[in-house]
Design goal:
There is one protein chain. This protein is α+β, with helices and mostly antiparallel strands. It has ten helices and twelve strands. Strands 2-3-4-5-1-6-10-9-8-7 form a ten-stranded antiparallel beta sheet. A hairpin with a 2-residue loop joins strand 3 and strand 4. The longest helix has 34 residues. It is elongated and about 85 Å long. It starts with a strand and ends with a strand.
Length: 367
């Protein structure tokens, strides 16, 4: 599912700030407001709305014009919650027209038009229902490390999140946020956990969401425009795939390759008596049992039967690790999850293959 969630849009108006403030108070009685003056002497006011799908409205009093900004949720313009992103073009247009109408009402300017609105912030979301969030623990860790290695800046914002399960008495990962570059924040997280913390009516499923929060310069850099009328969902998806998806795909692929080299180095001329212990020590660099199985196959000169015994030892060690590990994880079937993640979340058409006798390969498919 590809769609949009939160956005902030701006438009120039002619109305005086006092008139706009009265219009906001009339439409949304009792809302709180705050104002400040910037270095240029311009004033800006923020009105916290928190009604329907509007979070807040901002008004900027510039020397030559006034600007009105609306921070809102696309999904809550159609539904009660934002559990799922808005993924329908007609509904996207309807929500935007509602925002246009709100600005017309508070400014008394009927000539305000959707074609003049621009994005200053846009959250683009890719979301899929999965069988169990903890099963993606290894993949999420690899993706996070890939981002750290590419955008290694101690000043960059980055946070990982965990939760606790009383039944299993273990922690499990629920995602992370990462500020990759200026104007681009990445969130990969369990949408259901976030939703259930905020709502009394609990949902039961596992929803993995990848979110790209983009601000003005980044939006313009990727799409060559910030005008909302020029950015339908189809355009957003195509450009995100080309400008962001392919980059993240290469970073993730490089991180997996790096882990393979580390595993090969530590398992070169391994002693069979130490094998199970080695596997436990190397858990951090093991994405999937098939990858480590291939390395064992290549690094041993023993008979195929003996190699089979080694792989059985590896499997047993990985099963023990995932049974006891905290955060919870799954060391098996991650290559299938990797293929799904690349295709569905990174929007890159790719086939992932690996066997005990064949090295892990990524084959890009024609779109």
């Amino acid at each position: 599912m590809f769609g949009v969630d939160r956005a902030e849009v701006w438009v120039r108006v002619d109305a005086d700030v006092e008139l706009i403030a009265l219009g906001i108070q009339k439409k949304f009685p009792g809302v709180a407001s705050s104002g400040k003056k910037d270095k240029t002497g311009s004033y800006s006011y923020t009105f916290k709305i928190e009604q329907e799908n509007i979070n807040q409205i901002k008004v900027k009093d510039k020397i030559y014009c006034r600007k009105v900004g609306v921070d809102f949720s696309y999904p809550r313009g159609i539904r009660k919650t934002n559990l799922y992103p808005l993924d329908d073009e007609v509904e996207k247009l309807l929500v935007e027209e509602k925002i246009v109408q709100v600005v017309r009402e508070i400014t008394l300017e009927q000539e305000v038009d959707r074609k003049n609105f621009i994005y200053s912030l846009l959250e683009i979301c890719i979301q899929e229902e999965i069988k169990g969030f903890y099963k993606y623990n290894n993949l999420i860790n690899f993706f996070y490390k890939a981002l750290i290695r590419k955008f290694n800046n101690p000043l960059m914002e980055q946070s990982q999140f965990n939760n606790y399960d009383q039944v299993t008495d273990r922690f499990y990962q629920t995602g992370f946020t990462f500020l990759g570059e200026r104007g681009w924040k990445i969130r990969l997280y369990s949408k259901l956990h976030e939703h259930n913390k905020k709502h009394k009516e609990k949902e039961k499923s596992a929803l993995l969401r990848l979110e790209h929060q983009l601000t003005t310069n980044r939006i313009n850099n990727i799409f060559k425009t910030t005008k909302i009328a020029e950015l339908p969902l189809e355009v957003l998806k195509e450009e995100i795939s080309k400008k962001i998806g392919l980059l993240l795909f290469e970073l993730l692929k490089d991180e997996i390759s790096r882990s393979e080299m580390i595993l090969e180095k530590h398992l070169k001329n391994f002693n069979s008596r130490d094998l199970k212990g080695l596997i436990k020590d190397l858990q951090e660099w093991i994405l999937d049992e098939k990858i480590i199985g291939y390395i064992i196959q290549q690094n041993s000169s023993k008979s195929d039967r003996q190699k089979g015994r080694y792989r059985a030892m590896v499997k047993e060690s990985l099963e023990e690790s995932q049974t006891r590990a905290s955060p919870r994880r799954d060391n098996f079937n991650n290559l299938e999850r990797l293929e799904l993640f690349i295709n569905k979340f990174l929007l890159v058409k790719c086939e992932v293959k690996a066997k005990y006798t064949e090295h892990l390969t990524f084959r890009l498919l024609k779109t």
